[in-house]
Amino acid sequence: MQAKAILRHTPTSPRKMRVVAGLIRGKQVDQAKAILLNSTKAASRSVIQALKSAVANYAQKNPEERVGENELYVKEIFVDEGPTMKRMLPAPMGRAYRIRKRSNHLTIVVDKGNPVKK
């Protein structure tokens, strides 16, 4: 039985978040947490929040089953593009530069068992 957590409208560009998501894809949850805690990327804080939520969702879906974090693994993790806020910045000679403040939606799926190597 797998469990899923979705973190929506995270104010980080999807490209930067995908770099962090690639670090933990297919890893066990305890290894993934260690990687994220030692990462210097700002997006890792959002990923660890969603990972903890996915583990809690798994525990809530399976109350009769006691599983540790070393038994769960990250089955799927993907980042979709969220809404983009468009802003204008004044430029010389009466012009304006467009600033796009991107956001993303992060989805993490955890499952029990051994990760499948691809």
From TrEMBL:
This protein's GO CC annotations: ribosome
Signal peptide: none
Superkingdom of source: Bacteria
CDD domains: Ribosomal_L22
Keyword entries, A-Z: Ribonucleoprotein, Ribosomal protein, RNA-binding, rRNA-binding
InterPro entries: Ribosomal_uL22, Ribosomal_uL22_bac/chlpt-type, Ribosomal_uL22_bac/org-type, Ribosomal_uL22_sf
Cited Gene3D superfamilies: Ribosomal protein L22/L17
Subunit structure: Part of the 50S ribosomal subunit.
Task of the protein: This protein binds specifically to 23S rRNA; its binding is stimulated by other ribosomal proteins, e.g., L4, L17, and L20. It is important during the early stages of 50S assembly. It makes multiple contacts with different domains of the 23S rRNA in the assembled 50S subunit and ribosome. The globular domain of the protein is located near the polypeptide exit tunnel on the outside of the subunit, while an extended beta-hairpin is found that lines the wall of the exit tunnel in the center of the 70S ribosome.
Family: Belongs to the universal ribosomal protein uL22 family.
Protein name: Large ribosomal subunit protein uL22
Organism: Prosthecochloris ethylica
Gene: rplV
